[in-house]
Write the structure tokens for this entry.
Amino acid sequence: MQKVLITGVGGFCASHLVTRLRKTESVFICGTDISKVKPVNVPLDSYRQVDITDPGQVIELVQQFQPDWIFHLAGLVGNANVADIYHVNVSGTINLLDAYCRFAPEASMLLVGSAAEYGPVTSDLLPVTEEQACNPMGTYGISKYAVTMAGLDFAHRYNKKIVIARPFNIIGAGISSNLVLGAVLERIKQALANPGAPVIKIGNVASARDFIAVEDVVEAYVQLIKGDYWGEIFNICSGQPQTIREMLDKLVRNSPLPITFETDQELYKATDPPSFYGSNEKARRAFCFNPHVNINTALISAWDHTMKEVDNCV
């Protein structure tokens, strides 16, 4: 039986990862997060409240639990305070890497990076491969690139079993409102809960992105940690660009009421490229990665989960 440690277990991907592990693996799962309360409907064997920015707490956790597999999913995204993003994403990861090397040196670790590490990429360099030089813009992308560099340093310097996943735009039940489709879903939910025709503010929806179902993402996480890909980076993506407008049109097909979108210039980001998508060729060669969850199915799951408390949506 593998002893599995999952940080950030209260987050979007973590519950799906736990569900995936329960399907085929013999595991004892310890989940950690900053909250005192164990996340509901996540079948953990153990839960620990841990602040990953506190090295003492992280050392105690790793020393006591002695994990075989570590999935590091904890982190903050773009809407948080800048200093907090760096503190949690970078310092927290360093704390975990240090504790892992000192007290569970034979364990395998998966670090979650982000496609935001690449930064702006011109159209002639698409689809983005793992060999593309990174030039992240913005706090989140920079912090995730620092996480990747730290992970690679520990992997090569100390010969540790560390692999880095670089997911693109993840879709599914429980999607965070910090992500573009999650933010729109939250606005739709609020509009449908109130009387009147729903009108939703949107930014630049003409840009194309690489969307992938959360179930395919966590499947890749499991295959990576079970494999022998230490010290490597893998894009986890569909390889197919779809405009945000196309995704929103598919999303609102689930609505019981017509939804009107209105453009809000304040929601535009000057750094948004017109198109950005990745290559999953390396993952396909390494462990036969082949996204199988239809993106429409992922959108329905995201809709149903977000709208479950709105009477006229279920």
Remarks:
- The domain at 177-209+241-274+294-313 is CATH 3.90.25.10 (UDP-galactose 4-epimerase; domain 1).
- The first strand starts at residue 2 and ends at 7.
- The chain has a mean pLDDT of 93.
- The chain has two domains: 2-170+210-236, 177-209+241-274+294-313.
